[in-house]
Methyl-accepting chemotaxis protein
Amino acid sequence: MFADLKIRTGMFWVLLLFSLTLLFSTLSAWRAAVGSDQQIRELDQTAHQSDRLNNALLMAIRASANVSSGFIEQQGGHLDSAKARLALSETLIGNSHTLVAEFVANTQDPAQKALADDLQSTFDSYAKAVAGQRAATLARSLDDYFTVNVAAGTAMGKLQALRQQLVAALTARSQQIMSASDQRLGAAQWLSVALGLVTVLLAALCWGFIAARVLRPLQEAGAHFRRIAAGDLSVPVTVRSSNEIGQLFAELQRMQHSQRDTLGQITACASQLANAAQALDSVTEQSTQSLRQQDQELEQAATAVTEMTTAVEEVARNAVSTSQAASASNELAEQSRRQVNDNIDGTQAMAREVEVSGERLQQLAGQIRDIGKVLEVIRSVSEQTNLL
């Protein structure tokens, strides 16, 4: 299945898995960050709610206390101080009312919403009682003051009970947020470990794929190249896949076959050259024998020419002797012509015979000259033969 897997396809899937893992890790981290931000905001809101509630009740208590102090100072004759106390009480109750309204408006939990509404109504009752305390103080009515003071105490007791319930609910919510944060942290840690293991696994798979499908075949191809470069074509190249590495091995196999064919052709040509060299050696031996035979024949021809030259020289000497004899005959004929002047016919006949003999001698001299030319040619041939 994976033997024919393309290298680029394998690398694409490995990179895709790495990218998906990185994307999943990024999304998980983003979700964790968003969740943590929401939890931090909610925890901060819970803390602010608790502060608002505590500050609101504290201001409400201080408002009632300032009214009581103003009432006492008024009874003691300190009217200015009493008025200041009453004014401060009104300011404190107003600020407390604002904090309670913000607390109710920012309460989103349905379980806390009902308590917040009760808190609002109870606080309104308490604020009304404090206002009654201020009115009784201004009216200097001790009975009215004690009556509204009881109502204020009752409302404050209820406010304290509601505060405790709301603080308990806020504390429980804070604990839930912290527990959820701890769970999210644990999940993030496990997710980090899982992503780390997946990353290590992907890295191992990537390395295994590269080592098995790229590095090992390349090392094998390098070994084939070294053997082929050294002239060893005995180890066959096996193509095991059709991917890029398989194509490399196919080309390497084709090159090995081509070199084998070329080597076979070179071997055949070498055999033909060896046979041709043997044939040339035989022809050379035959030529040497023929040259030796021709040398012997030339030596024989030279001997024959030498003998012929000797014979021709002998003939030439005989011709010279004949010429000398002819000259002597001429002289004798002249003497005879003078002696036998009377016998004209005989002398004329002898003269004709002498003329015929002269012509023959001239022909013989011409033949001797021709023989001399032949001897010159034979000498030239003999000299060339000796040079050979």
Remarks:
- The helical segments are 7-75, 79-105, 110-139, 142-229, 244-339, 344-387.
- The chain has a mean pLDDT of 79.
- The CA atoms of residues 48 and 382 lie 143 Å apart.
